[in-house]
């Protein structure tokens, strides 16, 4: 450590001496105007000694030929330093991050400029029949020279020049194979075209303009959110009156030595064993009456509030369905002599169907085409009684409403008046005896069932394009 420290001592001493000399020459001012300080400063850089050489008027005079730049030169004349040109460093661009993964990047010499240029080939996916329409727009409104290459033509040996674009329309290029996937191997595979491709080749800098032009007509498709509030109110009003025997005793018991011993029947209502029961019994001249009178009235009110939401692009169709399958018998082969028939079981859809197709008019107005279908089972048309049971065909009532409205953001359309009322009256009685006035009430049962159904649609659309333009509503 001692030898190492001693080795650097002369250098340290020289540096300390130089600093002291500079400090003394910068602080000394013999003439009082800074001239002596400047002269000492100049002589130190020229000769290494103080007080020698000619000094400039001022070391801070940048306009003088003897200004500061001359202090670093050799001799008494200032040197002129050449201007420093900035070095051009090319920036490497990742074209895949700019234009996506499905591109081809190649370099070729431009025939006009003779420079090595980067070319991009990119396929644009489009719906069926849309590629040719976009190409026609590029011909008339695109600010570039367009060359259309027909599919199957000979390959071009030259590359597009400055501002030039080569385009190929591949109609029906995207094909999907559809079939019955529930079977293996899938049977009846049908190749179905589902889209076009527009193949573009141009210089890399021009591809930005081509993408902006195509996105103007293809990428910016507005989306509309359809919010539907469906309110269903079902009211059911029922009244049933019936009669049934009381235990093992018949309803009517006649005295001995009569032609009729007893009369018994059961015509119950919808009441259970603990609802609205009235036991009646009596004896008159040997005739006994022992029965249970049943009567029940019920009122049912059901309200269903559903709020489905669905998004659809402009011009598309959005559908909302709430359905129930009702068994439906189809009768055929009726014979009047043998009373034979054939019955086929199928199912009918009963419920609510809502179809909406929106269009944007201007910038905010939405033209909304709405179709509503409401169906319900309202009774029976044909009934056949067989040894194994009863077959009946339901009566299905359908209501349809169609309208086209123009709505501003925040407005809604209400479709109401879809009201269905169904009344079912049933009567069961003992023949002849049930038709006797007053007394006939003991030989029959009656039932009345009224069903009212109210459906209300509240439809509110909102435009969803980029930032939701209706977010503050």
Write a compact overview of the structure shown:
This protein is 14% helix and 48% strand.
Describe the structure.
This protein is mostly beta strands and 473 residues long. It contains 6 helices and 17 strands. Strands 6, 7, 8, 9, 10, 11, 16 and 17 form an 8-stranded antiparallel beta sheet that branches. Strands 1-2-5-4-3 form a 5-stranded mixed beta sheet, with helices on one face. Strands 12-13-14-15 form a 4-stranded antiparallel beta sheet, with no helix packed on it. β7 (252-253) and β8 (262-263) form a beta hairpin. α2 (9-27) packs antiparallel against α3 (35-47). It is elongated, with a radius of gyration of 50 Å. Mean pLDDT is 75; it is low at 1-32, 55-73 and 467-473.
Distance between the amino and carboxyl termini? 82 Å
* Amount of helix: 10-25%
The general outline is: elongated
Percent strand equals over 45%
Main sheet, how many strands, which sense, barrel?
Answer: 8 strands, antiparallel
Rg, rounded, reads 50 Å
- Find the structural class using helix and strand composition: mainly beta
Low-pLDDT parts are 1-32, 55-73, 467-473
**Mean pLDDT over all positions:** 75
**Secondary-structure element sequence?**
HHHHEEHEEEHEEEEEEEEEEEE
Tally of individual helices: 6
Number of strands: 17
Keywords:
473 residues; five-stranded mixed sheet; 6 helices; 17 strands; disordered C terminus
Secondary-structure blueprint:
Blueprint: H1 2-7, H2 9-27, H3 35-47, H4 95-99, E1 104-109, E2 116-126, H5 131-141, E3 145-148, E4 164-180, E5 187-203, H6 204-217, E6 223-245, E7 252-253, E8 262-263, E9 277-284, E10 287-306, E11 309-313, E12 318-332, E13 342-361, E14 365-386, E15 389-407, E16 413-429, E17 444-464
Parallel strand pairs: 3-4
Antiparallel strand pairs: 1-2, 2-5, 4-5, 6-10, 6-11, 6-17, 7-8, 7-10, 9-10, 12-13, 13-14, 14-15, 16-17
Helix pairs in contact: 2-3
């Amino acid at each position: 450590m001692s030898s190492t420290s001693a080795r650097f001592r002369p250098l340290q001493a020289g540096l300390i001496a130089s600093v002291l000399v500079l400090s003394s020459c910068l602080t000394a001012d013999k003439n009082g105007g800074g001239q002596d300080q400047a002269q000492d400063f100049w002589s130190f850089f020229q000769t290494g000694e103080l007080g020698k050489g000619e000094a400039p008027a001022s070391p801070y005079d940048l306009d003088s030929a003897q200004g500061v730049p001359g202090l670093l030169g050799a001799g008494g004349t200032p040197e002129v330093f050449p201007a420093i040109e900035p070095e051009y460093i090319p920036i490497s661009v990742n074209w895949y991050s700019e234009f996506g993964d499905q591109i081809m990047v190649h370099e070729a010499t431009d025939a006009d400029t003779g420079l090595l240029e980067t070319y991009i080939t990119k396929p644009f996916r489009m719906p069926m029949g849309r590629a040719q329409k976009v190409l026609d727009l590029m011909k008339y409104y695109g600010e570039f020279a367009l060359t259309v290459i027909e599919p199957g033509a000979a390959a071009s040996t030259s590359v597009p020049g400055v501002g030039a674009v080569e385009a190929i329309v591949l109609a029906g290029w995207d094909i999907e194979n559809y079939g019955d996937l529930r079977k293996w191997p899938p049977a009846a595979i049908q190749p179905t075209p589902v889209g076009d491709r527009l193949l573009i080749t141009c210089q890399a800098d021009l591809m930005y303009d081509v993408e902006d032009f195509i996105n103007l007509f293809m990428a910016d498709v507005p989306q509309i959110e359809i919010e539907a509030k469906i309110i269903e109110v079902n009211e059911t009003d029922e009244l049933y009156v019936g009669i049934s025997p009381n235990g093992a005793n018949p309803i009517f018991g006649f005295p001995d030595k009569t032609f009729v011993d007893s009369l018994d029947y059961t015509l119950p209502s919808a009441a259970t064993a603990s609802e609205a029961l009235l036991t009646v019994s009596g004896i008159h001249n040997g005739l006994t009456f022992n029965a249970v009178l049943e009567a029940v009235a019920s009122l049912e009110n059901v309200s269903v509030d559903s709020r489905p939401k669905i998004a659809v692009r402009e011009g598309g169709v959005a559908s909302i369905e709430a359905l129930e399958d009702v068994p439906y018998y189809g009768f055929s082969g009726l014979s009047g002599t043998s009373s034979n028939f054939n019955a086929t079981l199928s199912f009918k859809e009963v419920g609510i169907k809502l179809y909406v197709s929106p269009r944007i008019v201007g910038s905010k107005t939405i033209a909304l085409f709405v179709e509503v279908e409401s169906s319900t089972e309202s009774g029976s048309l044909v009934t056949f009684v067989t040894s194994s049971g009863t077959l009946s065909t339901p009566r299905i009532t359908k209501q349809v409403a169609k309208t086209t409205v123009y709505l501003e953001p925040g407005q809604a359309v209400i479709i109401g008046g879809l009201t269905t009322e169904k009344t079912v009256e049933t009567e069961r009685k003992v023949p002849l005896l049930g038709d006797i006035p007053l007394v006939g009430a003991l030989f029959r049962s009656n039932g009345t069932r009224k069903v009212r159904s109210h459906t209300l649609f509240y439809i509110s659309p909102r435009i969803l394009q980029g930032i939701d333009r209706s977010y503050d509503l």
